[in-house]
Amino acid sequence: MESTHPKLEELIAVLERLRAPGGCAWDREQTHESLVQYLIEETYELVDAIESGDCDEMVEELGDVLYQVIFHSDIAAEEGRFTLEDVAAHMTAKMIGRHPHVFGDAVADTPDAVMENWDVLKRAEKPGRTSVLDGVPQGMPALALADKLLGRAHKVGLLDATQPGAVNVQTEDELGPLLLAIVASAKANGLDSERALRSALRELQSEIRAAETAG
User: Fold this and answer.
1) Cβ atoms of 62 and 78 closer than 8 Å
2) d(CA 70, CA 67)
3) pTM confidence score
4) Domains of the chain
5) Which entry of 29, 115, 171, 176 is 20 to 30 Å from 109 by CA?
């Protein structure tokens, strides 16, 4: 039977050859930890490609990210921990389980309803999590982390994330220059914008945990 994804299988075979005895010394010595820097770099390069809208660049950068997934899976397989098939099987089960409105009898006709179901199912899958902050990666860029934490604060009733607050910016064309102006002002006064925002986010997380405890 002809393979449905021959080029994917060829890529997997190339990685396995590189890491096999007699292959590439550099590839052989890599670990999950040593590859983290490349995973981060390739992910940001993919973001750039998406934002540029260049299809050729997207193909290249998606390939680089895909290669990282295969690379990590091959390392784990060599250690007897898990395989690429395990990764795919887990993701397949997760997506089917998280979409009962497609694969089951649940009803979710709007994106908001889908996300509500997603949150309920996620909580059921991870009963050990006791806070809405559990699972939020603290290493995210500060602005992305801020967006994530504001959503969590909304969930516990600490604030209404649907309201614009003191600064009502309605378009990204307005938002970009405003953010740049804030960073420029901070730089002129010797302030670290990233550190300042992260400090504020630590305080917000404390407030979220306090709200959860009080609730």
Assistant:
1) no
2) 5
3) 0.78
4) 7-82 (1.10.287.1080), 130-214 (no CATH)
5) 171
